[in-house]
Amino acid sequence: MANVKLTIDSIAVEVPEGTTILQAAKSLNINIPTLCYHEDQKVKANCRICVVEVNGQKLLQTACSFPVADGMTVVTNSPRVIRARRNTLELILAHHPLDCLTCQKNNSCELQNIAKELNMSKPVRYEVASRNLPIDSSSPSIVHDPNKCIVCGRCLEVCNEVQTVGVLAKEGRSFDVVVNPPYGKVFADTACVNCGQCMQVCPVGALTIHDDTTDIYMAQEAGKTLAVQVAPSVRTTIAEALGEEPGTVSTGRLVTALKRLGFHYVFDTDFSADLTIMEEGNELLHRLNTGGVLPMITSCCPAWVKFCETFYPQYVKHLSSAKSPQQMFGAVIKTFFAERNQIDPQSLFSVSVMPCTAKKYECKRYEMNDSGYQDVDVALTVQELAWMIRTAGIDFKTLPETPFDSPFGLGSGAGEIFAATGGVMEAALRTVYEVVTGQTLESLDFHAVRGVEGLKEAEVNLAGTIVKVAVVHTLSQARAIMERVAAGTADYHFIEVMACPGGCIGGAGNPIRSWKKVLRRTASVYDVDRKLPVRKSHENKEVRVLYQDYLGAPLSEKSEHLLHTKYINRQDILRL
Amino acid sequence: MKQEIYSHTTSQSALVRVAEISARYRNRPDKLMDVILAVQKVVPSMAEDVAAVIAREMGLMQNEVYSFITFYGLLSVKEKGKYIIRMCNNAPCHVRGARAVMDAISDTLKIGVGETTQDRRFTVELCPCLGICDVSPAIMINDKTYGNLTYDSTQALIKRYIREDV
Ligand code: SF4
Ligand code: SF4
Ligand code: SF4
Ligand code: FES
Ligand code: FES
């Protein structure tokens, strides 16, 4: 591609043809404010905050969409440009409730940032007309405040194109436009799978996390015994949520922080991820040996499970019956652990910290009470935990390190890589291979299933049987592979599906994502795996003890009862 | 409240017609307007079940169909009467006696703007200029326009509709 020469604010620059003014300016470290633009999405050019002067153009042009041309002269900060941006901002603010102080996005809101950048220190000159619509907190995962929506359309792109769920719609026109679930519905009445990806891209406080932190304080005050499990991803994103570099691993500090927050037992979900592999791996072997339903598909992502139940209910028999690590842990804590430590399960409050908003919904599914109680009482996201740490005045950066508590404090590298797309598959292969062949794996790294391609495929030779596997992430990819399953052309034995782009490490409970950040987090995940002494689930000593002392064996009656679940048909929500 | 307005169900036979109409334009999103105009003749409103059938048959997403419908003032997701009376709301009609026309409508039907009669036969709405200011004041009932109206002629007109004499 040819290069183009232009000047921006009198600085000459040479960039490839097709670059936008915004990108060219960025290469010169000139910051043009943006609002509807998102680095991982299509150009929308509907907010007009990014306007610049371009020679030969009478009107100001939007930098995010305007392509550079040879000999172009761009001015990004003339008084005229600044006046126009401020005026646009005032018009947006005239339609926006100014309750920043009590907004979840306070300090992380893109609109607020722009107001700061544009030095908006005077009241808005227009009459403020708020929409006065009700706030929808019907979803266990997401709170929707349509009054704060600036109609940028980012959530629509994610939900329609990346996830193909289609929960939200632009409604009405002109001044009355609002983004809402169609037909006056609330989130709980839609096909929303709770993945939270819409919330991750919302620049303002229109889509936020359903904050459950109060429940923790209440349980504490009620004198409950608090047990918390921490998902694989959390150790690589909690530090980021508290202002450190993306990809900073902080396992030991995380445990210390949780102890200081008053959790009596701090356990590692890597442990139950290993448990999941034992159950799921054996289920796969069982299906392979007995002519069971194939391909078997992973079931640890609740957003994917709900998607399958809603859009492909006739294929739920392909889902592994194994519960997700969060729910396996929940069931074990209120049974085995409670019995061992002579704690009344009723006084035990089981919490999880997850990279995920769908886990909030998962723990409330009515099947998830095999211990006789709700197995996991509250699922917190990484962001909520970060708020609790801040609120408690804990300086995360300088915390000492503490190991996880026994008996569920040991996780293998296989459990750890659950965080990244392809991780469950790789973890399963490590175990299944050794169980079937009886041989030790030479190289533990299955590179074919790592990486961020939408669909990854691999073949593994298991003592003469070729096992074909596939890994997909995002629900649009899941839909594509399900169409092939439906058509009978998906000749795989095992498929891993994760709803979030990049897997759980890109989940919506984490700090706000971009692909760049997700890649850095992913690198850290594999780094943790490489450094762990035990990297295969079946070699996890504590998992072995649990089977010996309590469960018997994978797929035993007790395991089936506590660690497996069933699925339902949700198609009626689509009114088809 | 919101739920109530929206949750009206369409008859099975009407939905079958909707499916027939929409199926002709499978994977032709550009034909959505044609489909909706045809569908509008067989259903009382673009209710959720109607949008679901259109989406399914045309290979679109339900929320796209919904967005499309709400964008146009003359399409509606809420249930409306069999006859939609649209009263022109612009200046020329106003100066030439729109008030009297409006009064005639509300006196005859006992409903105001934005309302639907209990028997679900009439809905009254305001709309922008109908483009026939030369015969103002004017109204539109479904797809027919009527001009040069007075209180009395409006009342007579509405009564003809009540008797289905149109
Ligand atoms: S949580 Fe996921 S499925 Fe639900 S509206 Fe957001 S993007 Fe769509
Ligand atoms: S809800 Fe958020 S992401 Fe969606 S259109 Fe509104 S401001 Fe944009
Ligand atoms: S991919 Fe992970 S973070 Fe995303 S919805 Fe599924 S389980 Fe949650
Ligand atoms: S960022 Fe360019 S128009 Fe919104
Ligand atoms: S103003 Fe009423 S028809 Fe034009």
What low-confidence regions of chain B span 5 or more consecutive residues with pLDDT below 50? Answer: 1-5
User: What's the rounded overall pLDDT mean of chain A?
Assistant: 94
Low-confidence stretches of chain A: none
Secondary-structure arrangement, i.e. CATH architecture of the largest domain in chain B: 3-Layer(aba) Sandwich
Across the major sheet of chain A, the strand order is 2-1-5-3-4
Task: Write up this protein.
The complex is a heterodimer of chains A (576) and B (166). With 576 residues, chain A is α/β, with parallel strands linked by helices. Chain A has three domains: 3-93, Roll (Ubiquitin-like (UB roll)); 131-209, Alpha-Beta Plaits (2-Layer Sandwich); 213-563, Fe-only Hydrogenase (Larger Subunit), Chain L, domain 3 (3-Layer(aba) Sandwich), CATH 3.40.950. Chain A contains 19 helices and 17 strands. A five-stranded mixed β-sheet of chain A has the order 2-1-5-3-4, with helices on both faces. In chain A, strands 11-10-13-14 form a four-stranded parallel β-sheet, with helices on both faces. Chain A has a four-stranded mixed β-sheet with strand order 12-17-16-15, sandwiched between helices. In chain A, a hairpin with a 2-residue loop joins strand 1 (3-8) and strand 2 (11-16). The mean pLDDT of chain A is 94. Chain B is an alpha+beta fold and 166 residues long. Chain B has two domains: 12-71, no CATH class; 83-163, Glutaredoxin (3-Layer(aba) Sandwich), CATH 3.40.30. Chain B has eight helices and four strands, in the order H-H-H-H-H-E-H-H-E-E-E-H. Chain B has helices spanning 2-6, 12-23, 32-40, 48-58, 62-71, 91-95, 98-109, 151-162; strands at residues 83-88, 122-127, 139-141, 144-146. A four-stranded mixed β-sheet of chain B has the order 2-1-3-4, with helices on one face. The longest helix of chain B has 12 residues, at 12-23. The interface between A and B is medium-sized, with 18 and 20 residues. The site of one iron/sulfur cluster has 14 residues of chain A, from helix 4.
